Amino acid sequence: MKKNICDFNLEELIREIALLGQAPHRARQIFLWLNKKNAETFDVMTDLSKSFKRELKEKFVINRPKCAEHLVSMDGTEKFLWQLEGPEYIETVMIKEGARYTLCLSTQIGCKFKCPFCASGTKRFKRNLTVSEIVGQVIMAQNLCAIKATNIVFMGMGEPLDNYDNVIRSIRIINHPEGIGIGARKITVSTCGIVPGIRKLQNEALQVELSVSLHAPDDATRNQLVPVNHKYPLGTLIPACREYSEVTNRIITLEYTLINSFNDSIRTAEKLAKLAKAIRAKVNLIDCSSFGDGEYLPATIKKKKLFKQKLEACGVRTTIRKSKGADILAACGQLSAKFNKA
To answer: Which sign does the torsion angle of CA 161, 164, 170, 172 carry?
Structure first.
């Protein structure tokens, strides 16, 4: 069976090409064609000999996600539905904000962690994405948008730290100057709180940003919103975040979805501020995306404003993520749910 050559980072590709009796610079040429020039066939690789290209075709394929649907919002947000083998479907979103072009990537089909207010969590976990399926989202979205992404966030379908090895290998391709070439500090890995993954990530010598989906500052509430909290409660998660920040010298972002009459009180804001200050984190407030039976609804504009004011009064740097792409089901998992079977 032929291997998908898009699954290899540069070091791996050098080893694969060496098995064909070729020098490392040949692997660098191929890596550049695949990830910088977005080659879809070996034939377009003009600096390789015909005989070498024939040999490559015998051993490898170039296989990336196929676009099943491409939607453009009135606010400029673009959403892509990709068809994988199976067929299964995943999503990518391109968010445009001035000169900033952020790609939100998926890392799994479905999700194991079942956060009840997230559309991805309503579908059962099927499998991890491969490196080519993760990196392919970047390459294909850039091609279809005719825009080079400035930022990458692993905040789409799935839990990135549950697909740790493939996510890290993908980051190294996305970050590599001969690959896609996006700076490490422009790449954010989001997690619902997988503590072993956080501790492992801090030792990768990658200057990526870490975002933790907190959503509640106490275990009782967080157990309802983020079920993994039963395994990694705040007493375990917060020290891991503090250690990550100390080891990497990076500021962690606490993602906080405001849910009406659930986690949006002033008292809750005070608890959140205390947690954030303990680890020198900043807070990003997010509107809840309504779906399903409507049990979880967005906080009112007034409550959102008061919540932010309280955090800032307590000395916590706070931003509000502007909700975009509602008219194209841009929140993760909403579009693919129409295609993937439960």
So the answer is: positive
Question: Hey, how many other C-beta atoms are within 10 angstroms of the C-beta on 186?
Answer: 18
> What per-residue confidence (pLDDT) applies to 86?
83
**Residue among 155, 168, 157, 230 nearest 195 (CA):** 230
Exactly one of 16, 88, 91, 133 is catalytic; which is it?
91
* 210 residue type, one letter: L
Q: How many CB atoms lie within 10 A of CB 246?
A: 12
Tell me if the domain spanning 3-61 has CATH number 1.10.150.530.
yes
Query: What is residue 280's three-state secondary structure?
Result: coil
Whole-model pTM: value is 0.93
Q: What ranges do the domains of the chain cover? A: 3-61, 66-338
Say if CB 307 and CB 261 are below 8 A apart: no
d(CA 227, CA 215): 11
Q: Tell me how far apart the alpha carbons of residues 74 and 55 are, in angstroms, rounded to a whole number.
A: 47
Q: What is the pLDDT of residue 85?
A: 87
- Torsion 302-305-307-310 (CA) sign: negative
For this structure, is 255 an active site residue? no
Average pLDDT, the chain: 92
Q: Tell me how far the alpha carbon of residue 188 is from its chain's centroid.
A: 7
Question: In this structure, what are the phi and psi dihedrals at residue 89, rounded to the nearest 5 degrees?
Answer: -130, 140
Q: Provide φ and ψ at 199, rounded to 5°.
A: -65, -35
- Is residue 91 part of the annotated active site? The answer reads yes
Taking 70 as the pLDDT cut, the residues of the chain under it are 290-294, 323-342
**Phi, psi angle pair for 22, to nearest 5°:** -105, 150
Domain 66-338's class?
A: alpha beta
Tokens encoding 133: 């399926």
pLDDT at residue 330 in the model: 47
pLDDT digits (tens, 9 = 90+) for 189-248: 999 999 999 999 999 989 999 999 999 999 999 999 999 999 999 999 999 999 999 999
Q: What residue type is assigned to position 226 of the chain?
A: V
* Unique residue bearing structure tokens 């986690």: 263
Q: Are 83 and 89 in contact (CB under 8 A)?
A: yes
**Region at 193 (left for phi over 0; alpha for psi -120 to 50; beta for the rest):** left
